[in-house]
Amino acid sequence: MKAIINQESREPSIRLEDVVSQELPRDPRKVIDTQEKDGYCPSKHYARVKLTFPIDWSMNPFSDAHWAFQLNAMRPAVPYLFAHAKHPSIQYLTRAVDYFLDWQRFNITDGRPNKYKWYNMAVGQRAARLAYTLSQACKHSHSIGLARIEGLTQLALDHIDELMQPDRVSRGNHGLFQMHGLMALGRVLREYHEGRDAMEFARSTLDRLALLQFSDEGVHLEHSPAYHFFATRVLTTIYRTGWYDNDAHFNRHRDLIQAAAAWLVDPLGSVVAIGDSHCQKKDVPPPDGEPALFGPSPWPNAVVKHWSKTGYSIIRSSPDAPARDSYMLFFTGAHHSSVHKHSDDLHLNWFDRGCHILVDSGAYCYKRDRMRQYVLSTRAHNTIECNGTSSPRSKDYCYGSSLLAPRYHTWGAELSGRVAHPTLGFVHYRRVFFAPGRFLAVVDTVESRQEAEYVQWWHFDPSLSLSRDASGFIVRDSCGSPMVWVHTLSPIESCAIAYGEIHPRLQGWVCTSYKTMMPAYTLGIQEKGRHVRFTTIFCLDQAEMKNAEILVKRVGEAQ
Questions:
Q1: What structural domains and CATH numbers belong to the chain?
Q2: SS3 512
């Protein structure tokens, strides 16, 4: 232990910015004062909770996975580490050490049950913060005391043992945190053979994990555009430390990854809310895609991106289009793992004339309640539900991408995809006909060996309303003006509108921000049989409806 103390006293192995990704508060002392007076709070979405030593580290007062994860990731100690770095004072470092040793008491010494004790991402973040705390404790060993440093060292060795178990390493973005935490511990304990082994394990494993994060097309593979930005930021921060010499793959794909980001935001600059994504603003360069081979149209300068391996197809207006004339169709058919996967096979989002029209129900939060189960379900997406059951999300049913190559016509484009659901006993083939600024038409064909009940679901932005008219449905904007006319070839009596329903099951809800759900109009079109076809047309001009019907029929019969 003396060797480590000498090593860290001469030149600490870790800077705080190497292991803590949050921005440094202007005055972390104020954060500490609030936390000690009013209670701990990981974000604005939660009420404050008083943490009194000894702490019950298994507590989860909100039954919220994210809250419990943050507690066990040692988030309460972070303000003290910031304060110690910005306003060096042994009292802040001492309190941070108190948190780690109390966690050790509860979880290791006493062996108390705690679901999030070794939860992968929590372990990774806690390990990184522990490494910095141990480094600083060694630097100030006379004030912290040898006994407490010995306790931190043993805790670090326990974490190294946990993080070097291959079957415990997440293949998703959580694995990046695990390996970076392991590397941080290894650097501080490099005088021990366990530390040197940890560094080597972390280097080789992180290289493999970086390869798994993105497709060859440069797109993150966790079914959620928001995580493309998140994983990019995490890897950039990790490699910026200079601890790794194997970032060649990430650097080689950096241009692709950065270029892909532009396609994952809508024309208003918000992240496309697919999977576990929220509509957050992102400042990215304009998309650089293939020009759409459209003929004359109101806005002919469309750009298209089809990622056949990732499972995203996108058609959108050119970056220089005025906001009121902008549009975007985002079509997804992907199942690469269970990570952040929703039952959203062949789902689409539609943005036109500067407004969100058809939307995903969103992420909500990571609380395991009815609403979380709803946003994960098939019926919360613009796709086909079979017998009231959601399509599987587990890794056992991965198919990669289910999207087919786009087709271009003089009037617009056709996107399509095909996915088989063996557990539900049916195959779904979707064709999407999109004439920007004019209409969107969707033809779903489902086939099964046995008769089944199918519902084609459509979810409208919360700012819009939906009502019946003589020939179908009208979507109105927030001012009550007609905006979209909806027509289905299914019998009108098979259609039902839902809005903010709670019983017998949730239906008609859309997430507008983390943990915030708003009632929204949803249209469900039901059919029964072994071979069923749904055709639904959305027109931005009522006069276009007949032309759209004829065109869809003609193109459909020609294939």
A1: 2-198 (1.50.10.100), 282-558 (2.70.98.70)
A2: strand
Helix axes 193-213, 225-240, angle to 10 degrees: 140
DSSP letter assigned to residue 108: I
Q: 444 forms bridges with which residues in the sheet? A: 430, 534
Which pLDDT band holds residue 223 (cuts at 50, 70, 90)?
very high
CA distances to 204, 207, 372 from 235, rounded to whole Å, are 15, 11, 28
Residue labelled with tokens 């043993």: 154
Residue range 263-295, pLDDT digits in tens: 999 999 999 999 999 988 888 877 876 555 544
The DSSP secondary-structure symbol of 45 reads T
Q: Give φ, ψ of 436 to 5 degrees.
A: -55, 135
Mean pLDDT to the nearest integer, 468-492: 94
Q: Provide the token pair at 485.
A: 């006319």
- The pTM score is 0.90
Region of residue 302 (phi > 0: left; psi between -120 and 50: alpha; otherwise: beta): beta
Give start and end residues of each alpha helix (H) in 377-426.
none
* Eight-state DSSP code of residue 223: S
Q: Classify 427 as helix, strand or coil.
A: strand
CA–CA distance, 282 with 264 (Å, rounded to integer): 9
Q: Which residues have C-beta within 8 Å of that of residue 525, sequence separation ≥ 6?
A: 455, 456, 458, 488, 490, 494, 495, 534, 536
Which has the minimum average pLDDT: 119-128, 204-213, 355-364, 501-510? 204-213
Pairwise CA distance, residues 433 & 409, whole Å: 10
What pLDDT is attached to residue 322? 85
The alpha carbon dihedral of 188, 192, 198, 204 has a sign of positive
Range of lowest pLDDT (40-44, 312-316, 381-385): 40-44
Indicate the SS3 state at residue 376.
helix
DSSP state string for 256-323: HHHHHHGGGB-TTSBBP--SS----B---PPP--EEP---S-SS---EEEEETTTTEEEEE--TTS-G
The token pair that represents 41 in the structure block: 């709070």
H helices of 105-192, where? 120-139, 141-144, 146-163, 173-188
